[in-house]
Amino acid sequence: MTDRYADYQRLKFDWPSEGVLRVTMENPGRLNSADAVMHGELVRVWRDIDADPDVSAAIITGAGKAFSAGGDLDLVKEMTQDFETLSRVWKEARDLVYNVINCSKPVVSAMDGPAVGAGLVAGLLADVSIASRTARIIDGHTRLGVAAGDHAAIVWPLLCGMAKAKYYLMLCEPVSGEEAERIGLVSLTVDSDDLQDKALEVARKLANGSPSAVRWTKYALNNWLRMAGPTFDTSLALEFMGFNGPDVQEGLASLHGKRRPEFSKKSPL
């Protein structure tokens, strides 16, 4: 492992094939929920990957039977109480989206179990998104009490259409991996046991393809997302305004009191 990845704490790295870097989100006991450390690391890792000459393709996945169960509630609470934290996370949320979009290396996501929050940003913005049939994709913003920001406003309508995007984003309804493929939200679905093998198969094909052809095809297609920049900035502003409102306090209280057993105590769902 090169020195550029040595100081990461919540992201683990391995090379399952030549030219393929696998990034694994790992927050033990919390279903890989994104605390302050992981949130920051998910922002900067794409710049490191972009600059790494040894990487031809990357895989983003989660440790164990979860992709990522959303934002850590301690971080969410701190955002409601401290303006500096809120400002930092707002900037990170913006940079995370643009860093994934602008990373010149092709990215494959392998999503199993809950896929929520900052992890889901990378999962759905990946160039090829692969989910297990039983994955649970949820945009949890409105359940928390804030507008659906981050990636949601720009990529969900583009992937699955406005009607489906409004339904799932406004109601926070879970989308199974199988349903996500049917509506076009993800590229592929496979059985859980085949998820990592399929992700590696696709990453190898991308890594062995023409680097310039793959890179510029990605760049051109992602212009659809760049064109939505004003929509993204507005959605992000509306989301983070909500952290100063009463709905978040009610959302936090509700989430503390009503938890589904498949989600972590440190997850907002």
Automatic annotation (TrEMBL):
One example of the protein's molecular function in GO is: catalytic activity
Q: Which domain of life is it from?
A: Bacteria
Q: Which InterPro entries match?
A: ClpP/crotonase-like_dom_sf, Enoyl-CoA_hyd/isom_CS, Enoyl-CoA_hydra/iso, Enoyl-CoA_hydra_C
Instruction: Give the stretches traversing the membrane.
Output: none
Pfam family of this protein, just one?
ECH_1
The cross-references to PANTHER family, in alphabetical order and at most eight, read: ENOYL-COA HYDRATASE, ENOYL-COA HYDRATASE ECHA15 (ENOYL HYDRASE) (UNSATURATED ACYL-COA HYDRATASE) (CROTONASE)-RELATED
Matching entries from NCBIfam families are given as: PRK07327.1 (NF005595)
Family per record: Belongs to the enoyl-CoA hydratase/isomerase family.
* Identification of the protein by name: Enoyl-CoA hydratase
User: What species is this protein from?
Assistant: Caenispirillum salinarum AK4
**The organism's taxonomic lineage, starting at the top:** Bacteria, Pseudomonadati, Pseudomonadota, Alphaproteobacteria, Rhodospirillales
